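Quarterly update, task 2.4: S-adenosylmethionine-bound model.
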Amino acid sequence: MKLAKEKTRSLGFGVIAGLVGAALSGIFAISGATSPGATIPVFIGLAIVVGTAHYWKTLHIQAMRDEFNQVKNRLSLLGNSIAETQGLVQLSGLNQPYPMPFGGNWALTPDAAVILAREIAIRRPNTIVELGSGVSTVMVGRLLQQMKCGHLISLDHDPDWAKETRRHILANGLQDYVEVLDAPLTRQQFDGKNFDWYQVPEQLRHIEQIDMLTVDGPPQTTDATALARYPALPAFADQLSEHAVIYIDDAKRDTEKEMVKKWLQQYPGWKSRMIDTIPGTCFLEK
Ligand SMILES: C[S@@+](CC[C@H](N)C(=O)[O-])C[C@H]1O[C@@H](n2cnc3c(N)ncnc32)[C@H](O)[C@@H]1O
């Protein structure tokens, strides 16, 4: 709230109330009901009382709004914590040999990871391509290992991070199910626009039937409005199998909403399905 503006408004209301009071007092004085000397005290009194009351009411309402917003934010955080805890409990069935840091600013949140795991368990995709490696790579690898089917190829633009993910793949004994490939970001054109996007490794270019594409990279650039992940569908459209599904993380962000909108316009035949997870999860399928 702009306090100076509210003070001026309250002063204005006070002066108006004072003037109305003074005018009424003047009329009563002419009719002989009150003394003419009452006009100025009535003006001052009403101006002070009404101005102060208006200012107090404004401050009080603002304080109530602030408290309401604080409670709303706390409830939202509590809701997220419950969703994360429920997710972690459900993921415990994967029996990972050591805890993985789900959530935070980078990794899939546990509730979104559960949705991904469930979709993979139901669909049993043969080939999964992941854009953006990390905790999700290990989780999916572990699930494929338990199901004894499928293969995950994960791309990462950051060689150090790719190395770190590979270290976890080895530590979990998932190397038969997961490959993490380096894919530096290079300037490329998709649907007539320039993007800094993954240089798709040669071995991935030859795969004809991708059954699942998970879109969780590259990270949003310094330009918060750029559709950094838009190229995912144009780049792989011709390699996706007939019943392929695209999993999109961070689907509540404006950039991802815009990306999905543009995909649906540009690639007719795809349908989107939104799931209410902490970051927002969206599936696209035909
Ligand atoms: C949104 S993250 C991908 C997260 C991944 N799918 C997961 O669930 O862990 C996108 C990119 O950010 C980078 N990244 C991931 N975790 C990171 C971390 N903890 N610190 C710095 N960079 C990270 C990696 O290069 C990754 O490809």
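Highlight for this quarter: Residues 95-285 form a domain with the Rossmann fold fold (CATH 3.40.50.150).
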